[in-house]
Amino acid sequence: MHHSAVPEGVIARMREIRRDLHRHPELAFQEERTAARIMAELEALGIACDYGGVGSGVIGRLGPSQPVTTIALRADMDALPGEESTQLPFASQEPGRMHACGHDAHVAMVLGAAHLLAAAPPVVGVRLVFQPAEEKGGGARTVIAAGALEGVSAIFGAHVTHHYRVGQIMVAAGVITAQSDRFRIDVRGRGGHGARPHEATDAVVITGFLITALQTLVSREIDPVHPSVVTIGQVQAGSAPNVIAETAVLEGSIRTTLPAVRDQLHAGLRRMARALGDLHGAEVEVTLQSGYPPVVNTAAEARLAERAARQVVGDAGLMALDHPSMGSEDFAYYLERIPGCYVRFGARPEGSPYVPLHSPAFDIDEGVLPVGAAFFEAVVREAERSPLQGAPPA
Ligand code: NI
């Protein structure tokens, strides 16, 4: 279905849902009101759904009782901490919370697809996966643990973006987003009087060397054709201008798209930290914490998503991916288990400057809502035409 063919009533419904969720954003694992709204909408359409309570997701089920194949459509539900600055009439009414990543629109679009599918019931099974906590904590894992993927052959998800305009959909196979990891470096020297450095081991000076040295990991050790990032986002040390700091803590983020590069950066970080500690006679401890794995779209599902996108926005609206994003996304957890494809929907409002996701000024062109709903419906219709060779139904 071309997006211009989405019935006006469904568009109005999606807009109303999106604005309602936008007014009442809920943070990761607290999406209770959001879940209630989703369930009410599904129940009104006669779509069976399960909800495991606060902290879980809502899983809707459509299609025949013994489907040959089942595909999943996923929307994330959570908002972000922060004060909204958009001045929209439906701006957040919850202090310190905002839908700054467009997940309100994702929910509305999958519910829009549910309306379209309920009007002409699919011959394949369709699992609607509304997951909590994409932003923090990997909520995908909670719905997977609850059985969201049981019997599912492939999963499809999407994200709105200002990189493209309404009527543009980015579809690509392969690596779409990066692996993200966090690190923490604890430096333990010896505190002392600011006037007597020879009696101390200055954690601040060692921290300075560490910050500079770690810049050379990506620039001097990693093959430049493979993208990677090391960012030190937080540094804490010291308590007074005339006291030599005994301890310091550096915290940062590593982004990579290849496991080998990731291993190399982890090893390099440990090596440099240890060497600088030895050099200056301090104890240095490195803690690495895995974040989300990379999103890697599988080839057959990317082709299916491309066919679906072409029906919705035509050839002109189909965008290629120049290079992977160094951002991360917990859709990767689904793709670790089953095939699937994650796409992007252009949502930059006409005449608006580019505003990044997570900005307090982030807003979407609501013209993206029928594009998203029509795309998700088209994915299901494509799967009806050419069933995917994925996992057999459980
Ligand atoms: Ni997001």
Question: Can I get a quick summary?
Answer:
This protein is an alpha+beta fold and 394 residues long. The protein has helices at residues 8-23, 32-44, 103-119, 140-145, 203-221, 259-280, 299-313, 332-335, 368-385; strands at residues 48-51, 58-62, 70-76, 80-81, 97-98, 125-131, 154-165, 169-170, 174-177, 179-188, 192-193, 228-237, 243-244, 247-256, 283-290, 295-297, 318-319, 340-348.
Provide an overview of this structure.
The chain is an alpha+beta fold. The mean pLDDT is 96. The chain folds into 2 domains: 3-177 and 294-385, Zn peptidases (Aminopeptidase); 179-290, Alpha-Beta Plaits, CATH 3.30.70. The chain is elongated and about 80 Å long. The strands form 5 sheets. It has an 8-stranded mixed sheet with strand order 1-2-6-3-7-18-8-17. Strands 12-14-10-15 form a 4-stranded antiparallel sheet, with helices on one face. It has a two-stranded antiparallel sheet with strand order 4-5. The chain contains 9 helices and 18 strands. 49% of the residues are buried. Helix content is 33%, strand content 26%. It has helices at residues 8-23, 32-44, 103-119, 140-145, 203-221, 259-280, 299-313, 332-335, 368-385; strands at 48-51, 58-62, 70-76, 80-81, 97-98, 125-131, 154-165, 169-170, 174-177, 179-188, 192-193, 228-237, 243-244, 247-256, 283-290, 295-297, 318-319, 340-348. Bound molecules: nickel (II) ion. Nickel (II) ion (NI) binds at residues 101, 103, 134, 159, 357. The site of nickel (II) ion has 5 residues, from loops.
